[in-house]
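Repro:
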Amino acid sequence: MDGAVGQVASVGRERDALHAAMRGWGGVPILTILCAAIAVAASTVPQWSGWFTYDRGAILAGETWRFLTGHVTHWNVDHLVWDVAIFGILGAMVERHDRPTLLGLILLSAAAISAATWLFHPQVEQYRGLSGLDSALFGFAVPMVFVAARSRRESGVMLFVAALAAGFVAKVGWEFATGKTLFVDSSAAGFVPLPLVHAVGALVGFALWASRRTRGSIPLSIDDGELFHDR
């Protein structure tokens, strides 16, 4: 029994050390900035774009890293600017309160979106874009902010966030119905929109937020540097 307790305590200390290390740099969203910088480089350096793009044939040939790295590449500047801007805003919001959660959300949503693309869009040879990850961040950030606002009885913020959520659902529905993107001119960029990746991303983000709530992470305030607080 003592050995089991010691192992649990050791795991707890290692977890706390990891969280402490990842919370460095004060309030600077270093992970968000790093990911955005990688996306810009991977989308503007042709050799990097070639190596990082989700490419079904190349993945089957053994270049398995593309399964995750395709998200940081983009088809043109318009596509890149929209995706990175949204990632920067939402990523910084999540990272400000819990950097390890942001890292987990990025990895989990990247894998889930690529898996969904692989399984449900086998005709897609190449895929690029952060929009699926943006949707995952949105799916996590919206309930996070809504619950924090509710705890502070900020009805205006609650209504605004609810409107954003409704707008996102309408946007994805419109994309499914029309086969077009709302913000980026997909025809000019030369790609076919995949609204499924936005739906999958949002579901992953919401599921991760819900799992945090279920485990007892309590939302406090959107102003205090620590949105989550363990019981």
